[in-house]
Amino acid sequence: RNFYYITILRDPVSRYLSEWRHVQRGATWKASLHVCDGRSPTTEELPSCYAGDDWLGCSLQEFMECPYNLANNRQVRMLSDLSLVGCYNLSVMPEEQRNKVLLDSAKENLKRMAFFGLTEFQRKTQYLFEKTFNMNFISPFTQYNSTRASSVEIDEQTQQRIEALNFLDVELYDYAKDLFLQRYQYTRQKEHQEARRKRQEQRKILRA
């Protein structure tokens, strides 16, 4: 069998707000094992942000203030090879070095994936997916601009605070967006060239 790795990235601020709203309604990640190098993190390596069964009703301020919140830079962490930095053990290397290794790893893994898309570009994501795997969806993707995250009104200071908490995700998303649009433009140009070649062949046949 052939296995293809794919993923969808989302604007870091929107993704962060969406996760906060999800957690606020009572969602937890207790089913996630966070296994790395064959073991789960200890409570010292990964403390909980809340006491009790869930973080139901937490405010955005509380959500942002927890230093162990896995919502911070989640996209980079999920795409990178955590074993390169000692998994969840923050004492293995300095923070600045750890961040660089994680970001570089996430970029490299993203680049090597068979396909990745962006939530903010649904139609382009569909187009690239179909061209990559030579298959067509039955119905077109829909761009929903009204989401739970978009309904949250935040001031500029809060926006900057979320961006600071997710600075690795912000850099990864900028990289992904640039690469995604390059791939889209290349695929479109290739499609146009193929269509032009076919038209030229048809004209040759007609002339003959």
From TrEMBL:
Reaction(s) this enzyme catalyzes, per UniProt: alpha-D-glucosaminyl-[heparan sulfate](n) + 3'-phosphoadenylyl sulfate = 6-sulfo-alpha-D-glucosaminyl-[heparan sulfate](n) + adenosine 3',5'-bisphosphate + H(+)
Keyword Transmembrane: yes
One GO MF term: heparan sulfate 6-sulfotransferase activity
First-listed, main subcellular location of the protein, grouped into a coarse class: membrane
Domain of life of the organism encoding this protein: Eukaryota
Signal sequence region: none
Protein EC: 2.8.2.-
Enzyme class: transferase
Pfam families, sorted: Sulfotransfer_2
PANTHER family on file: HEPARAN SULFATE 6-O-SULFOTRANSFERASE 3, HEPARAN-SULFATE 6-O-SULFOTRANSFERASE 2
Family membership noted in the UniProt record: Belongs to the sulfotransferase 6 family.
Protein function: 6-O-sulfation enzyme which catalyzes the transfer of sulfate from 3'-phosphoadenosine 5'-phosphosulfate (PAPS) to position 6 of the N-sulfoglucosamine residue (GlcNS) of heparan sulfate.
Protein name, entry field: Heparan-sulfate 6-O-sulfotransferase
Organismal lineage: Eukaryota, Metazoa, Chordata, Craniata, Vertebrata
